[in-house]
Specification:
The protein has about 70 residues and is of the alpha+beta class. The chain has one domain: Double Stranded RNA Binding Domain. Helix content is about 25%, strand content about 45%. Strands 1, 2, 3, 4 and 5 form a 5-stranded antiparallel beta sheet that branches. A hairpin with a 2-residue loop joins strand 1 and strand 2. The protein is elongated and about 45 Å long. This is Transposase.
Length: about 70
Amino acid sequence: MEAEVYKGYAIWGHAIREHGNILWPARYAGNGTITKGSKFVEASGVLGSFKTDEDAQVAGLAWAHAWIERHG
């Protein structure tokens, strides 16, 4: 989980490992979460399937940045 503070919000990018099998390597679902203080603000749904956990986390953070720009 990758976290940062952006414009007073705490934001997280999450990577959830998808189960792979012998024919396909594991992939990662990405999503984002936003809080302010100790209160939940918003969470994305699954943003896509990514080859690496880092790519999934970056997508979650990018979603959170965009959400704050539109609503914050």
